[in-house]
Amino acid sequence: MKPTQILRLSFVSLFLVMAISINQSANGKTPDFNDILKSAEQGDPNAQFKVGEMYYHGQSIPKDYQKAIKWYQKAGENGNVEAQYILAWMCYKGKDAPQDYNQAAKWFLKAAEEGNTLAQFHLAGMYEVGRGVPQNKQQAVMWYQKAAKQGYSEAQYCCGLMYFHGVGVSKDYQQAIKWFVKASEQGNFPALFILGEIYEEGKAVPQNYQQAVKWFLKAAEEGDYGESSVRIHIRSMYNEGKCELQDYEKVIKMIQKKAEQGNESAQFELAGMYLRGDKLGPSSKPLLISQDYQQAVCWYLKLAEQGGSFAHSAQCQLGKMYSEGEGVPQNYVEAYKWLILAAVEGEESLTKHYVEARDALRLKMSPQQVTEAQKLAKEFKNKLDNSATEDRKDMEEGNSLVRRRE
After folding, report:
1. Do 396 and 322 sit in the same domain of this protein?
2. What DSSP character marks residue 94?
């Protein structure tokens, strides 16, 4: 893994979901806005933060992002760490505020100095690449270590990378492995995977294919994603005589188990295996899973209907399969419906591909078929949006993602 890849990995967790709710009083009722505002105007940083929250989320009052930011700033200047972190995040992403890396660094620094783990991690990433602050690899290491010592696995992994490549610190494989192991103990996929690579290549440790397979299997079992990388890697090791077929069979069983348990990454990988057949090469016979379009459609449908991060890719694949009659009766209306949905909010690089596939299919359809497909797509999207809204409400009511500072 090259040092230049650290940036990409450093910011894996920048795209976080924040669901923060207003504290309730002892009798279970939401405190009156005017009472909180009065305390905020008297300089109470926690009240200032709550007023910002109420304006931001439209709780008891109409939403007003400008007023929310004003109160977040007051709270942040008065030492409220949550407000400092939120302001940093807004400035970094340009979300509801102008994008300003200098301001982001300022607020991350304030929160980091108060011990906020995520602020320390993000500040480290900014020092590493020189975004909003002068590039300083030594400062990056220092802040990664502070976050790592508080148990944040992404920071532990980044510490391992810095020591492994000698970035901002003297190269030290033993220190690198120490941090990789700490991150791996929390199921950090990149750490688990790189430990497998270290043993496979014999870097800093004696080359040991059995140990490599052990770490790769652990990555497939415990990681939230990356099943494809593990499967391809162990398949390659098997092809090169570095491991046994039973090792590869374990990977497949793990993928199947995780897919059945609802892991979307595993579901997408399994769908692809059924679509193509699990082969060692283009002309070889299937190794463990034969091509089965019906099974592929089943898993792609599940992904499409869940609306997660793999939904658009699954919807596009369903469009192709309905268009070609693979695993399902050929149906241009269903195919066009799925391609409409795939093209709505997919990644920019993929959306162009989805749009091209949709437009090519439209040439084969009657106006009535197009209208019917558009109707079905709209109905499906409304159903998915309603389901997502309910999920967000449950999350906010549970207030399970954020630790409040009283």
Report:
1. yes
2. T
Chain-centroid distance of CA 385 in Å reads 20
The model's pTM = 0.77
Residue 240 belongs to a domain: yes
Q: Could you tell me the pLDDT band of residue 8, with boundaries at 50, 70 and 90?
A: very low
- Alpha-carbon span 217 to 84, nearest angstrom: 40
* Boundary (domain end) residue, out of 261, 291, 322: 261
* Three-class SS state of 305: helix
Phi then psi for 286, rounded to 5 degrees?
Answer: -55, 140
pLDDT score of 203: 85
Mean pLDDT of all residues belonging to the chain? 85
What's the domain range around 330?
308-401
Residue found under tokens 């469009």: 319
Give the Cα separation of 330 and 307 in Å (integer): 24
* Close Cβ partners of 29 (under 8 Å, ≥ 6 residues apart): none
Eight-class DSSP state of 290 = -
In a domain, 146, yes or no: no
State how far the Cα of 357 lies from the Cα of 139, in Å rounded to an integer. Answer: 48
Count of structural domains within the chain = 2
Residues 363, 346 contacting (CB under 8 angstroms): no
Tell me: the pLDDT tens digits for 193-226? 999 999 999 988 999 999 999 999 999 988 778 8
Tell me which residue of 293, 297, 280, 276 sits closest to 231, measured CA to CA.
280
